[in-house]
From TrEMBL:
Pfam families: YjbR. This is MmcQ protein. It comes from Candidatus Colimorpha enterica. SUPFAM superfamilies: YjbR-like. PANTHER family: CYTOPLASMIC PROTEIN (PTHR35145:SF1), CYTOPLASMIC PROTEIN-RELATED (PTHR35145).
Amino acid sequence: MQEPDLGMTKQEFLSFCLKTFGVQPDYPFDGDTETAVLRHGDNRKWFAILLRVSLRRFGFDSDNAADVVNLKLPAEMFGSFGKDDGVFPAYHMNKLHWVSVLLPGAPDSIVELLADASYETTRSRRRTRK
């Protein structure tokens, strides 16, 4: 498989999240300035985590590292996207709930759609009284 070269970069993704969700990244792992977490302000749940990962982990014939964003998706969205879209089973997360998206590597429209879905999936729910 050829290395990806289209779509938004890590910095463009962070800018999109700031503009769309009003969220800045935090870096919760001591000594690790590359792994960024994006969280909801109210419940502190992660909706995205950005990592550097070897492309070999995703089936590429390359030892180069790439930026990926892991996003949590609702069950009905699983299977809708695949390698051709730059979307893979999640690296280092529960593969039943999370996907890894290459940055760059997935079209902007797919990255934005999946980020919106992850944000909605992880947001606080209002409790209803019985």
